Amino acid sequence: MALKDLKDVTYYDLNNEINIPVNGQIPLNKDKEALAAFLTENVEPNTMKFDSLRERFDYLLDNNYIERDFFEKYDFSFVEKLYDYLNAQDFHFKTFMAAYKFYAQYTLRTNDNQQYLEGFIDRVAMNALFFADGDEQLAMDLADEIVHQRYQPATPSFLNAGRARRGELVSCFVLQMTDDMNAIGRGINSALQLSRIGGGVGINLSNLREAGAPIKGIANAASGVVPVMKLLEDSFSYSNQLGQRQGAGVVYLSVFHPDIIGFLGAKKEAADEKVRVKTLSLGVTVPDKFYQLVAADEDMYLFSPQSVEKEYGKPFSYVDITKEYDNLVTNPNIAKKKIRARTLETEISKLQQESGYPYVVNIDTANLHNPIAGKIIMSNLCSEILQVMTPSKINNKQEYDVLGKDVSCNLGSTNIVNLMASPDFGHSVEAMVRALTYVTDHSNIDVVPSVQYGNQQSHAIGLGAMGLHAYFAKNHMHYGDEDSLDFTKVYFMLLNYWSLKASNEIARERHETFAGFDKSDYANGTYFDKYVTKDWGPSRNKVVEQFKGIFIPTKDDWAALKADVMKDGLYHQNRMAIAPNGSISYINDTTASLNPIVNRIEERQEKKIGKIYYPAPYLSNDTLPYYQSAYDTDMRKVIDIYATAQEHIDQGMALTLFMRSTMPEGLYEWKNGRTDKMTTRDLNILRNYAWKKGCKSVYYVRTFTDNNGEVGANECESCSI
């Protein structure tokens, strides 16, 4: 039976029965039945069979399904050994959603799309062999990490590894435009090219002159940023990987840009179609000065990028607005206009209520804690990538007179529950760093030279994490309580320590560091000050017990690492970032990123299929009390968790805020005596709280509206398992 002929299957109905309580109980057994039915009715009859492993690989190679070059770096006897090991691990999907997602989105299929050519073990083997690049021990190590789901490569890496016909391995890209038509044209072309090969694209528009600014002395000639946004949206829509996926992009603008109100207005439902952007995401970069002006309820000045660049000799994004604000205000050569700071703050919150946008990047916070020489000016599609950039200069031939540094994002995630069970935490992290190093070393985005150059200079990676709420629930910890904060501190300290150790070891092996290492806080040692003067080990009894048997570096260990790094350097300019990792977390049977769950039984709307239900990992009568919905959780607890992790993460995190349009009673004390409806004031308070706690960004605001409720296990708070 071919995949196109599948009918009379039972697994969808069985899965849907999870959300129907039976005698006050959640029937989790129905998900196990759905999983078994899916494997029996879908996977087994539609997987191509081979008499031997050799026959299988001969078929894949001869028919151009997998690349020959990487495969031939290994003796086939080793491939057989690798498979023997993987098969002995007895991997099984734990939920219907995990198996469904893998076979729907990740597994290799025949050219006619009617048969599966691999299962999970095969995809693990491809990833291990591909990223180890001929190193047999590393291949075994990576196979061990991935099959036990301690490490999960990012979607494009996991999906494309080893395939002969594939997209890029990188997750996303970050670009900038400067204030001239050549740069705008090159930027639009870059967006087309990068959207074609895969991954979301972030583009900074802050350097472009505002609407009405003069061009070559002609007053009111410039059209501003909104028309460029429209061009970019059309570009992403057009360049969609042969219709396989919608191109995705985000544009960033400084809150001190004169077009900021029009920029936000372009996303509103009621915006005129001439200016409205429907699919383009929006982000704003927010210096500390904005928060200060809002707190003082003062006017704020918006500055013309053209006049700022002329006065300072560098693009607007590279000027420190907080430091230079008073000088910019009093300088008669700087064109400016005035608005109320709180008016803009309210406009940001209104749009977040309506659409979830804009993302907010606290740009001064990002730069204050940046150990790399240079300036961070923006972020990516999910607000977790924060790397220094330099501007390019484009001539009339669309060539680079000055080749600047843009960014490609090379990502992967630890699975917190499983990494905590690793026989060797540090060795696991080293294998992950080496896999990510392969991605950055072999990424060759030559269609956008600034991205290619930035990657070659920085060797940057982004090792993250998923499953934090699953770990808390499994270990009977309430999200945001003192134990959970202590665990978060120690876990991400360890991830930082071991990723630094691995990067230092690679630099020593290769006698190579990232460009600019000598100007970094790693080279002068100041980055390590907080670690050599304070103990970062667990302090709560419960957390001490959880880390029993796991090496916890002391101040002396950090001092030794500091000396090693100052001597031999680091290979990677950046090492850590927390992506939202939505769909890939289902395959890992864990919770997404560091977020709390949305529902104990999560509802997913799948294209052409309908609703699929996913029970929270490790859901049982014991864990039920620890799985409170994000929508019923004080977002300050979420911010506290993210801020605690941020202390040890050199880049950023995709921090999502979850809000109800009607607030639960007693959740926020400032609502007492006021309306229970979500207001702009609520979002203002939470954004300010995140800034004060040291969060570098706020990714997205998700709002659960009053008419989106569903009767079922999600609503049954008294249900048991």
From TrEMBL:
Its EC number is 1.17.4.1. It catalyses: a 2'-deoxyribonucleoside 5'-diphosphate + [thioredoxin]-disulfide + H2O = a ribonucleoside 5'-diphosphate + [thioredoxin]-dithiol. One of its GO terms (molecular function) is ribonucleoside-diphosphate reductase activity, thioredoxin disulfide as acceptor. Signal peptide: none annotated. It holds the Pfam family Ribonuc_red_lgC. PROSITE patterns: RIBORED_LARGE. Gene3D superfamilies: 1.10.1650.20, 3.20.70.20. Residues 558-580 form the Ribonucleotide reductase large subunit domain. Keywords: Allosteric enzyme, ATP-binding, Deoxyribonucleotide synthesis, Disulfide bond, Nucleotide-binding, Oxidoreductase. SUPFAM superfamilies: PFL-like glycyl radical enzymes, R1 subunit of ribonucleotide reductase, N-terminal domain. The keyword ATP-binding applies. InterPro entries: NrdE_NrdA_C (IPR013346), RNR_1b_NrdE (IPR026459), RNR_lg_C (IPR000788), RNR_lsu_N (IPR013509), RNR_N (IPR013554), RNR_R1-su_N (IPR008926), Rrm1 (IPR039718). It is an enzyme of class 1 (oxidoreductase). Belongs to the ribonucleoside diphosphate reductase large chain family. Provides the precursors necessary for DNA synthesis. Catalyzes the biosynthesis of deoxyribonucleotides from the corresponding ribonucleotides. This is Ribonucleoside-diphosphate reductase. The lineage of its organism: Bacteria, Bacillati, Bacillota, Bacilli, Lactobacillales. The gene is nrdE.
